[in-house]
Amino acid sequence: MPNLNKLTLKEALLGIKEKKFTAPELVSDCYDRIAAVDHQLNSFVTIVDKETALKQAQKVDPSLPLAGIPVAIKDNFLIEGLRTTASSKVLDSYIAQYTSTVVQKLISAGAIVIGKTNMDAWAHGSSTETSDFGPTKNPWNTNHLPGGSSGGSAAAVAADECIISIGSETAGSIRQPSAWCGIVGLKPTYGRCSRYGVISMASSTDSPGPICKTVDDSAFVLSIIAGHDPNDATSIDQNSWLYPSQSISDLKGLRLGLPKAYFPSEIKTEVKEATLRAAETFKKLGAEIIELDVLDPQYAIAVYTVLQRSEVSSNLARFTGVRYGNDRSFFAKEAIRRIMLGTYSLSSGYYDAYYLKAQKVRTLIVDDFNNQFKKVDAIIGPTSPTTALPLGATQGQAMFGELEDMLMEPSSLAGLPGISIPCGFANGLPIGLQITGPQLSEDKIVNIARLFESNTDYHLQRPQL
To answer: Phi-psi category of 396—alpha, beta or left, where left has phi over 0 and alpha has psi -120 to 50?
Structure first.
């Protein structure tokens, strides 16, 4: 079978199980695809030696749940013996000394790591343009951005360079690039997946999660990587999340909230129209669509900006060149700006005025969601106010990421699970729809997304490189 790299996870697992092809053949096709197209995309920072990956695929236990599946890993996840840079020249030659919990779970399940993907340096951004190794390009149009910070992971999946990938989200970094690249990004409840071995950005919101071709694939991967980890104090102390094998046939009795504030003045007309068409699809499937008055996402932008910069200044303080990589002169401008603003927010005389006040407003955002979920079962809306923007769109835009992620920042600050799925196209670029639920409601949002996907064909369309 040619072009095995184009398969979904579900199709790949079935094909290997039924011996239609082998794991090494699947891995080899992904490497061939990387060789053919990655010079156009720059999805990868580091590619694992092909022969090493093929040997691992040959030896993999066929009874494992991800036996032989090629996976790409965002370059802020440590993998022992592999270079881990977080797309910053500070860590240009850093070799990880241990493997992150999420990646170790994938490896233990039989997955074959084929490379580390490009990202905004230190995950600071929503474009992948702040990478010190050059921007990643969008597979749908290489003159456009893939989103970020998990832009390399999203582009790699959309371009069929791998079967699945792993990203991390602090406030949109899984869902937004998935929306811009026309694939599925599942951001779990905060603490659902371990942060151990992930280079910290904002520790109170960082959430590892899967980026895949279908809802089913993302749910299955989440069931592998989720679960309590004693090495992560913020990890939820409960058993691993189980993949919901029972799908639903309709949405009767389900109430979906559609916040008016999720259609800000900045939103593209095509994005708004696609979201409203999606709401009509949900209605036809039996859901009741309820218009909601929620806290304006503009508040979340202000809160996130203060809290994220404050946590960045603390987390990046360890990168002095003494233990990790190069010295602080290698920090790029975006990291320097965030360190300075965060240090200022935490400094004596300003802590109460900025950081403490932001935490209080964060509590109001959490309370608002709790009140909204008394009225509805889940909330729907556009993932991003725009489709993928042209290369260079971030230049001179200090708040680019916050504005592009404004519709996801409230749910990230509240630690809620969310999923972005394709819901349309505008000028050949994908549009994403997000579905958000209360904490620990991954079953619900996955089933809603799965039903939408089975009644539409947006996820079946692939970019032509």
So the answer is: left
